[in-house]
């Protein structure tokens, strides 16, 4: 396929966030450019204008395209001729800033790849959804775990009925890095994640349970009905939850659990999901992402390895691989798969074709709203002694 057909050129990327000392911005730049379909052209890399500009050479961004703020960037880029200006904006800043940056980018006509949770609160998410619906932009949310080949494989197996009816979805995202009050030591990533003014109403649940919940929705397509949740801050002085469990009732009668922890000794980035169907069960772990375990009673357990040439691989599973089996692929490649799917849509849009904003292989603005609804209802339920509250889903939204 020609480069970004039918556009037939690289897409020009702008990065917001990612300045010196930050985490995920660099991952966005690597993932977006991994397949040579995009080039990082412009950036507003930090909340501090000087640092924003001084971080630009680290990314090879020219001085003329290194901006002191996202406002200046959108303004400057909008004034450039069409064949020079950026095509999309990637947002890798703390949660409280996502909404304003994303809304301004969409209103300026740029495609957006926004990190999760999509916004600070649900009201912002609903408002952003409306803005996106009133535009023709491509809007992706970087729930990057959906990009793993064996996650897409599992999804296709489940949606084609191989597991039978889905009865249970257990996902957990277990970390240990906030076991101590790291925020009191001014550690950058801990400081804003534990600050309700920057993180939002939830801590661990906003930061990582959203990924675990999204993964269950993505892999099964089963529609949620209601949720009951317990959240707790175990570390003294912490203002937001660092541990919690949600129980979910699904419309088809299935039950789910989502557990998130930031305080489990020795646990690194252990996102795991198990799905029980009437005909079989599946298990996938992001710390060992090139294996998917399929089990049926009375039969030997099967380990599916990530092998693009194996006859057991589905189209979307094989299509998400870059390397032959046994050559480990992981975080960057999966992140890049979210980007490549969004690029297909961006190229179509640039060529004047109509794109579907809802039915996409990459997580989109509707998934972003679902994530925010999940966070809000978990926080509200926990505050009300784990009361059962409704859990709306994207299909119910026009
Ligand atoms: N998808 C994932 O796997 C994943 C992983 C980590 C973080 N995240 C999400 O990515 C976002 C950033 O997290 P992080 O850990 O990289 O944070 P970080 O604190 O390491 O970096 C944030 C960067 O954003 C910059 N920034 C803040 N406000 C800005 C503004 N108004 N304009 C321009 N730059 C601004 C900061 O200066 C910093 O460079 C969060 O929303 C987080 O939830 C997602």
TrEMBL record:
Report domain Gfo/Idh/MocA-like oxidoreductase N-terminal positions.
Answer: 12-143
Q: Does the keyword Oxidoreductase apply?
A: yes
SUPFAM superfamilies from the entry? Glyceraldehyde-3-phosphate dehydrogenase-like, C-terminal domain (SSF55347), NAD(P)-binding Rossmann-fold domains (SSF51735)
A Pfam family for this UniProt protein?
GFO_IDH_MocA_C3
Enzyme Commission number(s) of this protein:
1.1.1.361
* Keyword field contains Membrane: no
Q: Per its UniProt entry, which superkingdom is the organism in?
A: Bacteria
Q: Which UniProt keywords apply?
A: Oxidoreductase
This chain's protein is named Glucose-6-phosphate 3-dehydrogenase
This protein's species is Rubripirellula amarantea
Domain named GFO/IDH/MocA-like oxidoreductase: which ranges? 151-283
Annotated InterPro entries: Gfo/Idh/MocA-like_OxRdtase_N, Gfo/Idh/MocA_oxidoreduct, GFO_IDH_MocA-like_dom, NAD(P)-bd_dom_sf
Which GO molecular function, any one, fits this protein according to its record? Answer: nucleotide binding
